[in-house]
User: Which sequence fits this backbone?
């Protein structure tokens, strides 16, 4: 079924493995503005452009840092990487815990690397700081992919606001693209606010589901199905195959009733098994069809442009709000104020006004 | 079919028409803090509590004002009204232009007032400032309801950010409830961001659709169907009836595949015609069933508590962001910066950083 030999068409604009091109002199020009830091940032840029995974990892650590001096350096590095970015397809992958996201990413990821793609796997999980149960935190769950020289796996940045975590991931996408990765997965856990963030930084949104109508969606946030470009009914193997096929027909029917997407694409339902490695080639070609359609009708480019503007606003907003909520006075007063509002002892607007007066 | 005589069960906790109760002394205590303004705010509170529509309208105008001194006075008034608020069912109503929202609100609204309810109709349309095509702006579209002494219709506050418009509407809900309105409709146009805001300030979300699978949803934002507690297929009259019934079956099937709501409620599909005044009683009893279920399992109260906390955060955020984006330097620089980002001449993060440096 899934024969890598038949998969010689490119998923994205850059066919095959991206070769590290000569470094654009413009990048150095940007870096020259800060001579005291240019050595290290330049070294990082060179490393990234030469495909060094350890240096890419180090650069992402820089992007994730909350230290002011690191933020500046990270900004320079991203500006320098920008001319080399954009040449990937960015795929959001979501699904509730238990749907088999890790095994799916491993199996589909191996399929992509086996046909010549370079794959970076990132994640957004704002809860990971609190629960220490970060998705992707345990790379051993993706052992084969983690040891694949064509793949790069990075756990979710931990802690902080969703805005902060999302910002870091979006910046990491740029670094990964500059490092020659032509496919980027952004994984999210599908039960909170983070899917909207992932949706607004990806070209294609894939929702993993289980067989059994409705069952597999227990706990997933409402609205996600309608955002998805592809529903994959996972674990379609063994005695599950028939149920998966029934679910496929049901969901395909339901999706036709959904509001149409401005992309012109009709969301698709497929079945797949990571255990038996089936369905992967069809998912791959479906994504290719989506790319062909949306590059043809220019939706792809329009969406990316709008996403960039969106992220400029998000960055500004995140900065302003983080500064406010990180203030010790606010941090101190907030829980009590939330409690009072929740118990109806004060109204939202008086509480907000009191909080604002603290600064 | 829709016989008002059979509709003597109450939609909400307070049966029948809310009688203006004696004014709570706590309200005056709150007002006493600002003696120089207490007269006028007190007069407004008294007027609202006595069910004076002109004074309610004036109070909403105060809430909508952006003047600093009005904001303070509005805050006092809302605090004073708070003890009398909460006793309504808040219903969000959305649907694309052309679906017949105004005629539906008029027909369903008349049905509610005819069985003894007092109905306030508000709206959120952040675009109304720009386009001057405000929904509800033209009360003549709801002539019968506008002349009904048991109904109060208020157009969307105009202009400003979505956050600002939404905040004003949410404050107006409190004033309407204090004035004894036991049912509040919040109408939205269904094509932008405002449904999420409406969803987060209402107890029940109603999506109006047209017959013809999918057709009626052209242009509606993805995610809204999944947020809805009730889909009403409107204009189910004349030669449309059969198509409406078919659409009902299709959508009812599709909704069963959706992620389940934490309310424990399974979204319902009904048909209705405002032209022939059919289906209204069934919509009414369905909302009652929803209320019974969610008050029984406490979801109703939990959701309201979480919505209050949400709105505290939204109020703070809106205040901080509005102050930033209203700064003349930012206002001046923003369009050019957005253009540069859209055209890929700079990245989102450098642009954000440049904007932040302007202040």
Assistant:
């Amino acid at each position: 079924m899934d024969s890598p030999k038949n998969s010689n068409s490119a998923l994205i604009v850059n066919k095959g493995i991206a070769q590290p091109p000569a470094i654009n002199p413009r990048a150095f020009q940007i870096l020259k503005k800060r001579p005291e830091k240019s050595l290290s940032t330049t070294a990082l840029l060179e490393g990234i452009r030469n495909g060094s995974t350890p240096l890419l990892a180090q650069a992402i650590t820089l992007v994730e840092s909350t230290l002011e001096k690191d933020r500046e350096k990270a900004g320079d590095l991203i500006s320098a990487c920008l001319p080399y970015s954009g040449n990937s397809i960015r795929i959001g992958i979501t699904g509730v815990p238990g749907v088999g996201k890790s095994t799916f990413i491993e199996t589909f990821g191996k399929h992509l690397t086996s046909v010549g793609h370079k794959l970076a796997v990132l994640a957004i999980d704002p809860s990971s700081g609190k629960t220490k149960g970060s998705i992707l935190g345990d790379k051993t769950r993706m052992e084969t992919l983690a040891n694949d020289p064509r793949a790069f796996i990075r756990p979710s940045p931990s802690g902080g606001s969703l805005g902060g975590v999302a910002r870091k991931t979006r910046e990491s996408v740029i670094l990964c693209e500059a490092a020659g990765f032509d496919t980027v997965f952004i994984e999210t856990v599908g039960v909170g606010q983070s899917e909207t963030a992932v949706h607004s930084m990806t070209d294609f949104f894939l929702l993993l589901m289980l067989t059994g109508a409705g069952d597999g969606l227990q706990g997933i946030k409402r609205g996600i199905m309608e955002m998805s470009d592809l529903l994959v009914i996972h674990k379609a193997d063994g005695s599950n195959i028939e149920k998966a096929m029934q679910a496929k027909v049901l969901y395909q029917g339901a999706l036709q009733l959904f509001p149409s997407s401005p992309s012109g694409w009709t969301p698709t339902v497929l079945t797949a098994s990571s255990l038996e490695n089936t369905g992967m080639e069809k998912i791959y070609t479906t994504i290719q069809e989506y790319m062909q359609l949306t590059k043809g009708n220019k939706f792809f480019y329009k969406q990316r442009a709008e996403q960039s503007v969106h992220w400029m606003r998000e960055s500004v907003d995140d900065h302003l709000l983080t500064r406010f909520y990180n203030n010790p006075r606010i941090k101190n007063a907030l829980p009590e104020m939330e409690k009072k509002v929740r118990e109806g002892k004060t109204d939202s607007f008086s509480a907000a006004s009191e909080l604002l007066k603290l600064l």
Remarks:
- Chain B has three domains: 19-82, 87-297, 307-357.
- The longest helix of chain B spans residues 299-325.
